[in-house]
Amino acid sequence: MDRHSLKFTLESISKDILSGDRRSLARALSIVEDGGPEASWLVRKLFPHSGRAHLIGVTGSPGVGKSTLVDALIVEILKAKLRVGVLCIDPTSPFTGGAILGDRIRMQGHTLDKNVFIRSMANRGHAGGTALATYDAVRMLEAAGFDVIIIETVGVGQSELAIAQTADTTVLVLMPGSGDDIQAIKSGIMEIGDVFVVNKGDLPGAQKTATEVMQSLELSKNESGWHAPVDVTNAETNEGVEKVWTDIQKHRQWLEKTGNLKARRRAKSEAELAELVAEIARTNLHQSLEHSKQVQDLVSELVDHKVDPHSAAERVIQTIFTS
Question: Among 70, 129, 155, 249, which residue's Cβ finds the most Cβ atoms within 10 Å?
């Protein structure tokens, strides 16, 4: 496809996204997930139509019931007459680079609802399960008119911290009897939660876990002024999920009232900019290693111990930015 035809196609996709066409939205999400000039073009075109949605991050260890909770939250959001987009960040296949879980069985009851759009995305090996493409995927959903966007992460260990950079409101999901509450307290993950959910509330020890989390939150230093609620749910039966949605809305209202929403989004923009600059630097570095005689000579000096790695790195950066 020549450049003129490609631009015409991207123009058509962007126009159709703004009119709510789901097939065009799906194509756009594939484009931004692959990255490259086409993704950049779409982002530039649709960026003015982004920034309006409430971004909700749902994170927690595998097996705590994040997907079931998200499924139940969709029902509550639809009751509020809002449109919801869901990005499920999955582990990346080491062979294909695609999402291992793919188009999962969960949430299938909503696939025909025009007010719901669900997409699985590969994490591309990024810590925290959020790839650079996630930022742009959110923008595509916002441009398509979705009011609420839920980002459900892989949720492995301390890598959950990355979701706090992307979301306005972070929901940290725990379950009784798994040791998640103690692990979260020890690892500092508690700091990222705006709303805490002890799911599988029908299991023994659910209330005890909720009490321990509340006590931990009371002891921790929280200078923001927001007092994170701890909700007990059984997402399988929707029990307690309405309260979670209410608390998420209260947090959004608090963010707007205190000016913290703008502060959070500024921090997110700084993080994204840093990642993009690093990605550009990596790309330029690979090109320099392949094509630059100056860099190749420097590598030879490094191998021969004529220059130390730190000095070599500084000289490479100078070469990259001057070129």
Answer: 129
